[in-house]
Design a protein that fits this description.
This protein has 15 helices and 13 strands. Helix 3 packs across helix 13 and helix 6 runs parallel beside helix 8. Among the domains are: about 180 residues, no CATH class; about 160 residues, no CATH class. It is α+β, with helices and mostly antiparallel strands. Strands 1, 3, 7, 8, 9, 10 and 11 form a 7-stranded antiparallel beta sheet that branches. Strands 2-4 form a two-stranded antiparallel ribbon. Strands 5-6 form a two-stranded antiparallel ribbon. Bound molecules: adenosine monophosphate (AMP) and magnesium ion (MG). Adenosine monophosphate binds next to loops.
């Protein structure tokens, strides 16, 4: 029956040098039960779950039954977690293999919450239902906002309890990624001082994500530059939609440029660059406005792991590294500026643009204005709540902004640009929590309604107004948890 689903597996990761992974099967679970299956994603991968029963799907998506051709493994990696270097690896995830879709695109199929591995470090190897559904909805929301991300194919309950702060229902998430190569994967090989494997990893990464670099004179440098560009784009995109990743450890930074490892992430309502939701981020290391600098810090760690390949001469390698990482600042500033121009419908380049942007942020901060709704207001003139509109400075700013837009050649283009870059609907924190609380009691209706909303983030819909509003004041203090 599994053959009918359409999986077409290869296992290139399994054939990499042995130190990179441990071959291990998922631990079977007691009573797998399908909670949600992403049919649209399945179809786009060329998979057809309608040919098997929900029970059979659950057997496969829990890891109880292995897909034909799968060589399951846990990947080894290291990482800087909140600045400290640690040995990690997939402690509760197992890569089943790489599925090739009809266009021969390669997708990692990974189960998260699939049991202990040699990298579990005292953890139980399991995941709870609520955090897995959280990853499901947030990763899909990020996808529909046109931001690169891993995706979520399914969540299956295991029929077993997991002990966190309280007893919770166990679950397994099926994650789809263009790969699970992390900055931490490179750090791991570098820590072994295994230059041959490091070269293999560079080649492998280029083959999977940057085939255009094969001819590069120095592949490590070329790879670094490309990863840096994709990471800059990614972080700028997060900031465009007010997303806070929450745990930007180097093991949670993907070489592909996809958002990965959704833990205590959340979207910011009212604008404050210092916003932190994560219960474990005591010093605000991963606050909204710190994401750009952390991106550079992580990339510096990536560069360090590539050090032996930059130049044989250590001094020269150091010089090269310094020049490469310094480029981040201008590249980021340019990308960010362009993103803000898009949000504000600015097409031509005018001297006043930068000041207009920073003035707006100051007023948003002072008035605790909702980030996404402020930009949507500039498009549609509707502002669900808040005092920004009564701020005399904002009234002047808005008049200036309108004058500024008249410098664009075509006002319709500005409107289209703003519509494309400013979401109406983000997964609002209180809506996510309500959906998860109901799902935990077996009622998926709120989750499914929220899912519908996040699939069309840029389309105005008067019937869904309540999803566009920030949390009421009573719900404002928001903490998110890793749920590990
Ligand atoms: P994360 O914060 O999800 O990126 O995970 C950080 C590290 O902790 C990774 O190596 C995970 O595999 C590991 N980890 C997280 N939760 C568990 C768990 N319940 N059991 C074992 N390992 C875990
Ligand atoms: Mg992680």
């Amino acid at each position: 029956m599994i053959e009918k689903l359409g999986f077409n597996f290869e296992n290139t990761y399994a054939s990499l040098p042995e130190i990179m992974a441990t071959k291990i099967s998922p631990t079977t679970v007691k009573k797998p039960e399908l909670v949600i299956l992403n049919q649209t994603l399945a179809n786009s991968l060329g998979l057809d779950f309608s040919k098997v029963s929900d029970n059979q799907s659950a057997e496969i998506l829990s890891g109880n039954k292995l897909i034909k051709g799968s060589i399951p493994l846990a990947q080894a990696y290291c990482g800087h977690q909140f600045g400290s270097f640690v040995m990690l690896g997939d402690g509760r995830a197992i890569l089943l293999g790489e599925h090739l879709d009809s266009k021969k695109q390669r997708w990692d199929i990974q189960l998260k919450g699939s049991g202990k591995t040699p990298y579990s470090r005292g953890g139980d190897g399991r995941a709870a239902l609520s955090p897995m559904l959280r990853e499901y909805i947030i990763s899909e929301a990020i996808h529909f906002m046109n931001i690169p991300t891993t995706r979520s194919l399914a969540v299956v309950k295991t029929g077993e309890d997991v002990l966190r702060e309280t007893l919770q229902q166990g679950a397994v998430l099926t994650r789809i990624a263009s790969s699970h190569l992390r900055v931490g994967t490179f750090q791991y090989i570098a820590s072994k001082q295994d230059i041959t494997t490091l070269k293999t990893l560079v080649n492998y990464s280029i083959e999977r994500h940057y085939p255009e670099l094969f001819q590069a004179q120095n592949k490590a440098i070329a790879l670094f530059n490309s990863v840096m560009k994709r990471q800059i784009k990614l972080i700028v995109n997060w900031m465009r939609v007010s997303f806070i990743h929450g745990v930007m450890n180097t093991d949670n930074m993907s070489i592909s440029g996809e958002s990965i490892d959704y833990g205590p992430c959340a979207f910011m309502d009212h604008y404050d660059a210092k916003t932190v939701f994560s219960s474990i981020d005591h010093y605000g290391r991963y606050a909204f406005g710190s994401q750009p600098i952390i991106g550079q810090w992580n990339l510096a760690r990536f560069l360090e792991s590539l050090f032996p390949l930059l130049d044989r001469n250590e001094k020269k390698a150091e010089k090269i590294a310094n020049v490469l990482i310094k480029k981040y600042e201008n590249l980021f500033a340019e990308e960010y500026h362009q993103m803000m121009k898009n949000k504000l419908g600015m097409i031509s380049d005018e001297d006043q643009d930068k000041n207009m942007m920073s003035d707006l942020f100051k007023m948003m901060h002072k008035n605790q204005a909702d980030y996404n709704n402020t930009f949507r207001y500039l498009i549609n003139g509707k502002f669900p709540q808040g005092k920004l509109l009564n701020d005399p400075d904002f009234i002047i700013w808005e008049a200036q902004w309108k004058k500024r837009l008249s410098k664009n050649q075509n006002s319709e283009d500005a409107y289209q640009l703003m519509m494309k870059h400013n979401p109406v609907f983000i997964p609002r924190n209180h809506k996510v929590e309500q959906a998860l609380a109901a799902a935990d009691k077996g009622d998926m209706s709120k989750f499914l309604s929220l899912y519908e909303v996040i699939t069309k983030p840029y389309v105005e819909n008067a019937d869904l107004e309540e999803y566009a509003k920030p949390a009421p004041a009573s719900d404002r203090v928001y903490k998110t948890y890793c749920g590990t």
